[in-house]
Amino acid sequence: MIIKCPHCGPRDLAEFSYHGDATLTRPDPASTDRDAWNAYVYDRTNPAGDHREYWQHSGGCRRHVVVSRNTLTHAITDVRFAGERK
């Protein structure tokens, strides 16, 4: 799989580290709601189709990116730096 880093250009998957689901909403850091934190940390779905994921270009610029890809075909439709708005 080739991921097009916005800074470095197209790179092989081996240069990246997977960092998880980019669709989750983190609870308020001051929250003591154990159920909310448990759901955020441990509950995962296994989506079939389009999905957004965090990756780090650990073998290159070391920036975090959000990759939009289809989990069935691995076709990547968008890559942007984490924190950028779509």
Characterise this structure:
This protein has 86 residues and is mainly beta. The protein has a single domain, classed as 2-Layer Sandwich (Folate-binding fold), CATH 3.30.2270. 10% of the residues lie in helices and 38% in strands. It is built from one helix and six strands; from the N terminus they run βββαβββ. A four-stranded antiparallel sheet has the order 3-4-5-6, with no helix packed on it. A two-stranded antiparallel ribbon has the order 1-2. The two termini are 23 Å apart.
Give average pLDDT, whole number: 94
The string of secondary-structure elements, in order, is EEEHEEE
Helix content: 10-25%
Unreliable runs: none
CATH topology tier name: Folate-binding fold
**Topology, number of strands:** 6
Main sheet record: 4 strands, antiparallel
| Widest sheet, order of strands | 3-4-5-6
Output the CATH class name.
Alpha Beta
- CA-atom Rg in angstroms: 14 Å
Number of helices: 1
Distance between the termini: 23 Å
Going by CATH, the architecture would be 2-Layer Sandwich
Q: Assembly type of the shown chains?
A: single chain
* Overall shape: globular
Write a brief structural summary:
It comes from Oricola cellulosilytica. It holds the Pfam family SoxD. By secondary structure, this protein is mainly β.
Keywords:
single chain; 86 residues; mainly beta; Folate-binding fold; two-stranded antiparallel sheet; 38% strand; SoxD
